[in-house]
Design goal:
Elements (H helix, E strand, L loop, with lengths): L10 E3 L3 E6 L4 E9 L1 H4 L26 H4 L4 E5 L10 H6 L6 E5 H5 L2 H11 L6 E9 L3 E2 L5 E2 L4 E2 L4 E2 L3 E9 L5 E9 L16 H8 L14 E2 L2 E2 L1
Parallel strand pairs: 12-13
Antiparallel strand pairs: 1-2, 2-3, 3-6, 4-5, 6-11, 7-8, 9-10, 11-12, 13-14
C-alpha cells in the first residue's frame, strides 16, 4: 500500500492482498494486490483445485455473503484478487477464495473469458515491470431509461441480498527498473463480451473511475509524475 489506500472503510488484510469491505452490498469496495514475476509464476506446489470458497468470519454474520447466496443465482463467484496472482504458496492461493474477495459475475462470456483475459494481461505486465500494483473492484453505474431519467439499478442475490455490480474496474500502476511509473485503467460491463473484443476498448481515464466509485487510486503519486497513462505519454 506504499502509494496509498483508495479508502479506509472496513479494511481486511490477508497475507498477500488487502481489501475494503462494503457491508451494505456484501462485496468489496476494492481489493489491492502487489505482484511481480516471482509471485505469479506457476508453482507445482500450489494446486488451485484444492481451494474452497469460504465465508469471511472477520465480517459480522449480518453483513456476510455466503455460498448459499450464489447457489442457483446464475452468477459465478468472481475473484477480485485473482487466484493466479498468488502462487508463492498454497495458503496465499487459498485466501483468494474468501467470499469477501468475490462478487457476482456473469460466467460464460465474462468471468471465464474477457475478465480472465484482463487478469492474464495484468500478469504479463510483470515480464516488463519489476512491480505491478493492482486495484480491482465493483461499480454501480447509472443507465438512461425510457423516461429520459438516469437510474442506478442492480440485482441482488441470495437471502443476504448480495449486490450484482453493473461493471468492474481495474486500475494498475507499473514500476519499471528505473522507477518510472505507468498506469492503466479499465472498466468492463458485467455482461457477455465478444471474445474478439480487444482489451484497449475498455480503457478509461482513471479519474472517471474515481468519481464513479468514490475512491482515490494511488493518491500518493502525483499524476504529473506518471510516465504513461493507458499507453499514452502523460
Amino acid at each position: 500500500m506504499r502509494f496509498g489506500f483508495p479508502s479506509l472503510d472496513n479494511i481486511r488484510s490477508m497475507d498477500d492482498f488487502v481489501l475494503s469491505y462494503d457491508k451494505r452490498n456484501r462485496v468489496a469496495n476494492w481489493v489491492f494486490e502487489h505482484i511481480n514475476k516471482e509471485s505469479v509464476q506457476k508453482n507445482p506446489a500450489v494446486d488451485r483445485s484444492k481451494c474452497e470458497f469460504y465465508e469471511d468470519k472477520s465480517v459480522h454474520e449480518f453483513f456476510r455473503s455466503t455460498n448459499a447466496d450464489y447457489k442457483g443465482s446464475g452468477y459465478d463467484r468472481g475473484h477480485m484478487a485473482a487466484a493466479g496472482n498468488h502462487r508463492i504458496n498454497q495458503q496465499h492461493c487459498d485466501q483468494t477464495f474468501v467470499l469477501s474477495n468475490m462478487a457476482p459475475q456473469v460466467g460464460k462470456g465474462f468471468n471465464r473469458d474477457s475478465w480472465n483475459r484482463l487478469e492474464m494481461h495484468v500478469r504479463k505486465l510483470t515480464h516488463f515491470y519489476r512491480n505491478v500494483y493492482v486495484c480491482t473492484g465493483p461499480l454501480y453505474l447509472p443507465k438512461l431509461e425510457a423516461d429520459g431519467k438516469s437510474y442506478i439499478k442492480y440485482q441482488v442475490i441470495g437471502k443476504n441480498n448480495v449486490a450484482v455490480p453493473t461493471h468492474f474496474f481495474k486500475v494498475i500502476v507499473m514500476e519499471s527498473d528505473n522507477q518510472k511509473l505507468d498506469m492503466e485503467a479499465y472498466v468492463m460491463p458485467n455482461a457477455v463480451i465478444k471474445d474478439d473484443t480487444p482489451l484497449n476498448v475498455f480503457q478509461v481515464p482513471p479519474e472517471s473511475i474515481e468519481r464513479a466509485a468514490g475512491l482515490l487510486f494511488f493518491d500518493k503519486i502525483s499524476r504529473s509524475k506518471l510516465n504513461k497513462i493507458n499507453g499514452r505519454w502523460a
